């Protein structure tokens, strides 16, 4: 617990993905959101690794912007997110 928030995290092959949420929010919903985010990154970067995140941080921010809005889950469809990302890339 951090102030009035809790930190939810998940580890994938040495990478930690963390989200700070309200204490009343559902843990499982955000664990699923993290998993969904990692799957989109994996598809977008074709097997994502730490270097992809470091050297393409602006692309990672674009993925975050497509999936989350004002700290809330905006889109859960991986297909829609990837389609939008490919459109933005072209």
UniProtKB/TrEMBL annotation:
<dbReference type="GO" id="GO:0030117">
    <property type="term" value="C:membrane coat"/>
</dbReference>
<dbReference type="InterPro" id="IPR022775">
    <property type="entry name" value="AP_mu_sigma_su"/>
</dbReference>
<dbReference type="InterPro" id="IPR011012">
    <property type="entry name" value="Longin-like_dom_sf"/>
</dbReference>
<keyword id="KW-0653">Protein transport</keyword>
<dbReference type="InterPro" id="IPR016635">
    <property type="entry name" value="AP_complex_ssu"/>
</dbReference>
<dbReference type="GO" id="GO:0006886">
    <property type="term" value="P:intracellular protein transport"/>
</dbReference>
<keyword id="KW-0813">Transport</keyword>
<dbReference type="Pfam" id="PF01217">
    <property type="entry name" value="Clat_adaptor_s"/>
</dbReference>
<feature type="domain" description="AP complex mu/sigma subunit">
    <location>
        <begin position="2"/>
        <end position="89"/>
    </location>
</feature>
<dbReference type="GO" id="GO:0012505">
    <property type="term" value="C:endomembrane system"/>
</dbReference>
<dbReference type="GO" id="GO:0016192">
    <property type="term" value="P:vesicle-mediated transport"/>
</dbReference>
<keyword id="KW-0472">Membrane</keyword>
<protein>
    <submittedName>
        <fullName>Adaptor related protein complex 2 subunit sigma 1</fullName>
    </submittedName>
</protein>
<dbReference type="InterPro" id="IPR000804">
    <property type="entry name" value="Clathrin_sm-chain_CS"/>
</dbReference>
<comment type="similarity">
    <text>Belongs to the adaptor complexes small subunit family.</text>
</comment>
